[in-house]
Specification:
The protein has 372 residues and is of the alpha+beta class. It has eleven helices and 13 strands.
């Protein structure tokens, strides 16, 4: 058995971003047009008028100030309100593979490796642009990696589930060096015309290299333990729409975009996640006082504050539970990896932390790491 470690990480950030103020202008223009088009039904009491959004409402509800997207123009067009991502010829790299390769190359450079050194690629994301061939195999090909590759989908928990799968294979010796890549085009499955959720998501891609601890070429994080759990719920759901709408090739249906019952999610997921982390730490022999940092799923600041307080038994101090959602919004599975990538270099040998993601399923995954 070998000891797995995270030896490199990378984040691809799209060039375009949307502020809350820009988003609100577009949404309110759409709402006004919708209300005008349905004025007779609104006056007759058959439907409710669509209310306006505001930057203050968005920040208060989520802690989000801006988000990165692959296509800003389509999202901010009141006559469209979703991204335009033209379909590509089969001979060209897919958009998710292109994003993933960028993040992967950053992680490989940090680890002192090349694509040819990798013998496992897992593309773990909340949605994939096609069923087959697997995006992971395309990334494998573009990187010149060997071995094998496969896609994984556990919604917002995909990254930590992917890390557990890769770490287990490194530990057993079935693979030597693995890449877990998380390209998230959340703008494709967000309903930008729904006031309750139009601000939630952004686009990004992350990647981590996992290999034998003994072969690490520099500072790295030893993976001490991993744990995953699922429990079925319909409170977060997406009925298979995703990128097809962005290509303008199908009828637009509300149920094919992101939907959630936010109140139930908040009430049911937070106890599940807090208990999961505490139980995982207990089984590993860790105490809350051992944690130097918590890199949590970046869905909502209030949710993270709740979890941090439950796990630590107190309000987290500055820097103990870094948030990046104010700049990136919710990037599904990639969120905790962005937080880890941007807030881990300052840790010293022996410092411990937990990477945790959670979401639809319900699902929750935690990775206990120690700076080496």
């Amino acid at each position: 058995m070998y000891q797995p470690a995270i030896t490199g990480h990378g984040v691809f950030t799209p060039q375009q971003s949307i502020s809350n103020e820009e988003l609100v202008i577009a949404f309110n223009a759409y709402a006004d047009r919708w209300n005008e088009a349905h004025s007779d039904d609104i006056d007759a009491g058959k439907v409710e008028a669509m209310g306006h959004s505001s930057p203050e409402f968005i920040f208060s509800a989520s802690g989000i100030e801006r988000r990165y997207v692959m296509d800003k123009g389509g999202v901010l067009d009141p006559d469209r309100m979703y991204p335009s991502l033209p379909s590509r010829p089969d001979e060209e790299p897919g958009i998710m593979a292109e994003m993933g390769v960028d993040a992967a190359n950053q992680a490989l450079e940090m680890a002192g490796l090349t694509g040819a050194d990798i013998d496992l690629v897992i593309c773990a994301a909340s949605n994939h642009e096609r069923a087959y061939p697997a995006i992971a195999i395309e990334i494998q090909n573009l990187l010149g990696a060997g071995g094998f590759a496969f896609d994984m989908n556990v919604a917002c928990s995909s990254a930590t589930f992917g890390i557990q799968a890769a770490a287990d294979m490194v530990r057993s010796g079935s693979v030597r060096r693995a890449l877990v890549v998380n390209p998230e085009i959340c703008s494709g499955h967000l309903e930008w015309r729904d006031r309750d959720c139009h601000f939630i998501f952004g686009d990004v891609a992350t990647a981590v290299v996992i290999q034998r601890d003994e072969e690490a070429k520099g500072a790295h994080f030893t993976i001490r333990s991993t744990s995953c759990a699922t429990k079925f719920s319909n409170n977060i759901r997406n009925n298979n729409g995703f990128l097809r709408r962005t290509h303008d090739q199908m009828e637009d249906r509300r149920d094919m975009q992101f939907m959630q019952n936010g109140r139930k999610v908040f009430k049911e997921v937070l106890p599940m996640v807090s208990h999961h982390i505490l139980e995982h730490m207990h089984e590993t022999g860790w105490e809350a006082s051992d944690l130097k940092r918590m890199w949590l799923h970046q869905a909502n600041k209030t949710m993270n504050d709740f979890i941090g307080k439950k796990v630590l038994g107190r309000v987290p101090a500055d820097g103990e539970q870094p948030n990046i959602l104010q700049d990136y919004a919710n990037t599904s599975s990639a969120g905790s990896i962005i937080a880890f990538s941007q807030n881990s270099d300052d840790l010293q040998p022996g410092d411990r932390g937990v990477i945790c993601s959670f979401g639809a399923g319900y699902s929750v995954g935690s990775v206990l790491v120690e700076r080496a």
